[in-house]
């Protein structure tokens, strides 16, 4: 680590080194490492009552009778509500993305009234003096259910005569979404491309169901004050939540303030309007008392939205020389029982990324959104793009095998060359900048590719029981969500702009208000770096305010790797306006023409007159006093800006995984992982690296460890951290990371976004590596996660090992064999 | 209700608790030590880790009555004379993002270093495997623990900085800028 050069250590007349690019330690850390945090569950208000939710133990049933009389008699219980109590006022939880005009949305009550459609759905809410009293009373609720057929398997759900999740609907299909490049004019006819092709490779991939599993369980506090309400919630989206909660409950928007205090991770899982948020509002309104709900981990895994869960049918067409000619993708996407905030949009967002970095002349995408009796799916880190990247990077390897080509050579032959940017793809996206060859070369060096290939050869020749494989993933993603007009064309219910305000305080200190709401990303640090450079003020003089709709009035929050790209750009634009306003004051006070003023290092000076000048922090004091300023302008240099990007940004990179596969036990172990990412301009290399690491962990976890499993009755059998395997330190390798930098042309920072890169890129690299190790033994696919049982079955029984395998994973197996072991033993 | 007397972060508390009360709930709800958090209900995540008479425990697996007569140290008390070297190292090495696992991770790491003052990367990974982090991918946590270990052994400069010879401190990536 390069030592941090503090401004305090520099001579005062030397310009400070730019903050952008510095590995600043985070401002956020001081409270987080000392336990002086404000998690929502830490909040205690006078008279506060606690909620516990009675949840359905069955996946699909009519509610025939609810008896809560015993609950009412329990010690400490103040009230109990069932679905009938809120039937008239609860409305429907919002779905903001009707991806087709005829999409079927059955509506989603916050609390079930007469039917439950997945295990864990709320059927009653208990309000008590203490959380323990509320929880104790849960088992006193007596609910009778009349079972309905349980629909779990997507392929069966869309078959003729299938049982229905919502029996008032005609089928289990919510929508049929199509993108056809030929029809859109962005490509040629796909059927013709396949008819003319020398080679067609078709595969079926399964994106298993995943759980975001943020570390801080969800928590909500609502305080009523007259007809005003303040809601604190562990959410990624206080601004969106405010709008949506107002629309759902009828509480006027200006009477509702939403605060996201310290939030412990989200990964898309807190990009949601939760039933419990609405129920807290409704109950606080009824009782006129502050209420709190905090979930247990089991509740979280069972009822917070899940991610992925798609079946992908992928066809690729090519000529004998390995030039790709066409791509066809058909998806079944599991919606779960209801459509939540962006449930239907997740696979549709991925639609545009299946062509990856390759120059396909023809492309067609179709997706059916399918209802099942499971908890709804929605955004999880990457949201549509990991699925797309997995499909294209896996099928490129399959095509290479079919053609007898080196998988890297096949990629090179078809990827967009550096000189071709900006490049409009067959999906109609204009990729902004990049250089896939350079990133790949660096990644090969980081991995030690040639040595590992030589070792792989030796192991093959000696029939080593532990075989070695190398997997590629040369990926790109669309980030910086999003140009508002594009979102409009995709029928999304909101824009994609972001807002910022800068307040220049009399003492020269700076308050930056951002509409982008962090939950671990380090906005306070990175935004301070942006403003320190823009305004030429010390890093320490900048305070970043966020996450409270009473302070940050406009915002669209944090998801889709948008914060720096869109929110950071709004901050820079606001700073530009501050400088423009201050320039007029400076010209007046310096008795010079505005045109003759230079602004550098936080100081306006008259060109050609060294030694003179006025600092922007001095101007802040002068305009606060307002004794002497030009006629015709307002006495303020504060400014705000709303930035709406004109295009997405397109980070890219090359991820390489070297994997050892024990052919006797099925145990897989990452030998080495190397990646080179291009995320555009890097504001803080420490934060960028941390985001890549965390993304890698989650992407590798999809490949090797995690799967949300339901039994035949629709019970989640991975409902605790005993069974849902978030990897521990001992389950993950060291990562060798690097960067190339091609600034994004579409925003003033040049940033492309980094939050999802590692998660999107890594999964196919890991699976491709495992297959590369054992393909010569006849294995062509292994179902994720690559548990030892699945790997062993694929080796011994053929197929993808997934049909008979349980959810027992590498990590669990490791507890009973040798190798790294899973959680639980350390303390 | 059962009366207990516990010393928490240096101060003595005498309280009546239900016998079923978990230590973590006692700390959070009765003592007000909300720096210690709850992350799961199966003792897998370690977010609630505190020291009980100097040894790390998951405070969701200890009853408050079992802590009667004991000394409890939480994240709020571990650096009462300034930051503990492990706290400093987590900051210096970017060993946290959202920070929810951090109190438990720091308390577990301090315990690990008491047992093994000079752990290898693998020993750190195995030593903290009872604590889950969803943000960092653990690499910078490993760096932080090894950096703190070096400082606690006397190899640091007192600011969480240690020489590259002691531990690989290359936390920032090599940034190659193309034209």
UniProtKB/TrEMBL annotation, chain A:
Which cofactors go with this protein? Answer: Mo-molybdopterin cytosine dinucleotide
Question: Residues annotated as region Disordered?
Answer: 1-27, 796-827
A single GO molecular function term of this UniProt record:
iron ion binding
Q: Extract the SMART domains matched here.
A: Ald_Xan_dh_C
Every Aldehyde oxidase/xanthine dehydrogenase a/b hammerhead domain range = 34-149
Extent of Polar residues compositional bias: 807-820
Read off the InterPro entries from this record: Ald_Oxase/Xan_DH_a/b (IPR000674), Ald_Oxase/Xan_DH_a/b_sf (IPR036856), Ald_Oxase/xanthine_DH-like (IPR016208), AldOxase/xan_DH_MoCoBD1 (IPR008274), AldOxase/xan_DH_MoCoBD2 (IPR046867), AldOxase/xan_DH_Mopterin-bd_sf (IPR037165)
Q: Where is the composition biased (Basic and acidic residues)?
A: 796-806
Entry's Pfam families?
Ald_Xan_dh_C, MoCoBD_1, MoCoBD_2
Cite the entry's keywords alphabetically: Molybdenum, Oxidoreductase
Supply the SUPFAM superfamilies for this chain. Answer: CO dehydrogenase molybdoprotein N-domain-like (SSF54665), Molybdenum cofactor-binding domain (SSF56003)
Q: Which Gene3D superfamilies match?
A: Aldehyde oxidase/xanthine dehydrogenase, a/b hammerhead, Aldehyde oxidase/xanthine dehydrogenase, molybdopterin binding domain
Protein name, please?
Answer: Molybdopterin-dependent oxidoreductase
What is the protein's species of origin?
Answer: Blastococcus saxobsidens
From TrEMBL, chain B:
Name listed for the protein in its UniProt record: (2Fe-2S)-binding protein
Q: Which UniProt keywords apply?
A: 2Fe-2S, Iron, Iron-sulfur, Metal-binding, Oxidoreductase
Q: Which Pfam families match?
A: Fer2 (PF00111), Fer2_2 (PF01799)
Give a GO molecular function annotation for the protein. Answer: oxidoreductase activity
Report if keyword Metal-binding is assigned: yes
Q: In which pathway does it act?
A: Alkaloid degradation; nicotine degradation
Listed SUPFAM superfamilies? 2Fe-2S ferredoxin-like, CO dehydrogenase ISP C-domain like
InterPro entries annotated for this entry? Answer: 2Fe-2S-bd, 2Fe-2S-bd_dom_sf, 2Fe-2S_ferredoxin-like_sf, 2Fe-2S_ferredoxin-type, Beta-grasp_dom_sf, Diverse_Oxidoreductases
2Fe-2S ferredoxin-type domain location, by residue?
2-78
Keyword Coiled coil (UniProt): no
Determine the domain of life of the protein's source: Bacteria
């Amino acid at each position: 680590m390069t030592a941090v050069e503090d401004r305090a250590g520099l001579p005062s007349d030397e310009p400070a080194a730019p903050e952008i690019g510095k590995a600043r330690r985070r401002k956020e850390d001081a409270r987080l490492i000392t336990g002086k945090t404000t998690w929502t569950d830490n909040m205690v208000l006078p008279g506060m009552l606690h909620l516990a939710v009675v949840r359905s133990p069955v996946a699909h049933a009519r509610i025939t009778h609810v008896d809560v009389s015993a609950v009412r008699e329990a010690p400490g219980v103040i009230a109990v509500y069932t679905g009938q109590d809120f039937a008239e006022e609860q409305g429907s939880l919002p779905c903001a993305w009707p991806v087709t005009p005829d999409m079927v949305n059955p509506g989603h009550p916050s609390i079930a009234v007469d039917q439950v459609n997945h295990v864990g759905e709320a059927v009653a809410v208990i309000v008590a003096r203490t959380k323990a009293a509320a929880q104790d009373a849960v088992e006193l609720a007596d609910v009778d259910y009349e079972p309905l057929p349980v629909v779990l398997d997507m392929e069966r759900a869309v078959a003729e005569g299938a049982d229905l999740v919502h029996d008032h609907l005609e089928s289990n299909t919510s929508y049929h979404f199509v993108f056809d490049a030929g029809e859109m004019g962005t490509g040629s006819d796909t059927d013709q491309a396949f008819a003319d092709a020398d080679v067609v490779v078709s595969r079926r991939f399964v994106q298993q169901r995943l759980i975001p599993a943020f570390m801080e369980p969800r928590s909500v506090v609502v305080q009523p004050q007259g007809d005003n309400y303040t809601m604190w919630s562990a959410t990624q989206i206080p601004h969106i939540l405010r709008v949506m909660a107002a629309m759902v409950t009828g509480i006027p928007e200006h009477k509702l303030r939403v605060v996201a205090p310290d939030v412990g991770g989200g990964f898309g899982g807190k990009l949601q309007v939760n039933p419990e948020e609405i129920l807290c509002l409704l109950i606080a309104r009824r009782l006129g008392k502050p209420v709190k709900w905090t979930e247990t981990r089991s509740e979280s895994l069972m009822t917070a939205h899940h991610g992925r869960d798609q079946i992908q049918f992928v066809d690729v067409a090519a000529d004998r020389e390995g030039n790709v000619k066409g791509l066809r993708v058909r998806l079944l996407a599991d919606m779960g029982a209801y459509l939540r905030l962006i449930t239907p949009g997740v696979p549709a967002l991925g639609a545009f990324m299946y062509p990856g970095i390759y120059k396909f002349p023809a492309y067609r995408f179709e997706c059916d959104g399918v209802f099942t009796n499971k908890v709804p799916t929605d955004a999880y880190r990457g949201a549509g793009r990991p699925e797309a990247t997995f499909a294209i990077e896996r099928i490129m390897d399959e095509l290479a095998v079919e053609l007898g080509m080196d998988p890297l050579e096949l990629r090179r032959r078809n990827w967009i060359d550096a000189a071709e940017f900006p490049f409009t793809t067959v999906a109609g996206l204009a990729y902004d900048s990049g250089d896939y060859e350079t990133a790949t070369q660096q990644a090969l060096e980081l991995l030690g590719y040639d040595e590992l290939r030589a070792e792989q050869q030796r192991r093959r020749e000696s029939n080593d029981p532990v075989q070695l494989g190398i997997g590629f993933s040369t990926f790109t993603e669309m980030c910086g969500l999003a140009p508002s007009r594009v979102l409009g064309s995709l029928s999304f219910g909101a824009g994609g702009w972001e807002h910022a305000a800068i307040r220049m305080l009399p003492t020269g200190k700076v308050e930056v208000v951002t509409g982008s709401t962090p939950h671990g990303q380090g906005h306070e640090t990175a935004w301070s770096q942006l403003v320190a450079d823009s305004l030429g003020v010390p890093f320490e003089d900048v305070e970043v305010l966020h996450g409270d709709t009473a302070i940050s009035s406009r915002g669209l929050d944090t998801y889709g790797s948008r914060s720096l790209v869109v929110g950071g750009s709004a901050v820079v634009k606001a700073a530009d306006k501050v400088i423009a306003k201050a320039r007029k004051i400076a010209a007046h006070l310096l008795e010079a023409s505005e045109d003759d003023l230079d602004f550098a290092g936080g100081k306006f000076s008259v060109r050609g007159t060294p030694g003179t000048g006025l600092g922007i922090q001095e101007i802040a004091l002068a305009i606060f006093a307002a004794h002497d300023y030009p006629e015709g302008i307002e006495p303020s240099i504060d400014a705000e800006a709303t930035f709406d990007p004109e295009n997405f940004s397109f980070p890219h990179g090359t991820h390489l995984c070297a994997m050892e596969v024990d052919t006797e036990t099925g145990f897989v172990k990452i030998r080495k992982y190397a990646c080179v990412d291009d995320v555009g301009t890097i504001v803080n290399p420490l934060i960028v690296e941390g985001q890549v690491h965390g993304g890698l962990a989650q992407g590798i976890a999809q490949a090797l460890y995690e799967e949300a499993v339901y039994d035949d009755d629709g019970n989640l059998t991975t409902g605790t951290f005993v069974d849902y395997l978030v990897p521990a330190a001992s389950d993950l390798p060291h990562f060798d990371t690097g960067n190339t930098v091609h600034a994004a042309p579409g925003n003033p920072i040049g940033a492309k976004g980094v939050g999802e890169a590692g998660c999107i890129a890594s999964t196919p690299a890991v699976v491709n590596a495992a297959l590369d190790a054992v393909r010569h033994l006849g294995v062509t696919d292994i179902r994720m996660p690559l548990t030892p049982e699945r790997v062993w079955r694929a080796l011994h029984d053929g197929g993808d090992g997934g049909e008979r395998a349980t959810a027992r994973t590498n990590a669990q197996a490791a507890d009973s064999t040798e190798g790294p072991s899973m959680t639980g033993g350390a303390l | 209700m059962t009366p207990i007397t516990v010393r928490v972060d240096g101060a003595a508390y005498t309280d009546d608790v239900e016998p079923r009360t978990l230590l973590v709930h006692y700390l959070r709800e009765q003592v007000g030590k909300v720096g210690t958090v709850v992350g799961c209900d199966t003792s897998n995540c370690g977010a609630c880790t505190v020291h009980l008479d100097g040894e790390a425990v998951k405070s969701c697996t200890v009853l408050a009555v079992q802590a009667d007569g004991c000394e409890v140290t939480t994240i709020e008390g571990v650096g009462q004379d300034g930051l503990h070297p492990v706290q400093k190292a987590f900051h210096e090495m970017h060993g946290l993002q959202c920070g929810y696992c951090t109190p438990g991770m720091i308390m577990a790491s301090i315990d690990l270093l008491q047992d093994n003052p000079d752990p290898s990367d693998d020993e750190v990974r195995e030593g903290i495997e009872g604590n889950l982090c969803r943000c960092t991918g653990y690499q910078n946590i490993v760096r932080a623990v090894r950096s703190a270990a070096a400082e606690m052994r006397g190899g640091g400069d007192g600011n969480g900085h240690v020489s590259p010879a002691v531990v690989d401190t290359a936390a920032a990536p090599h940034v190659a800028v193309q034209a």
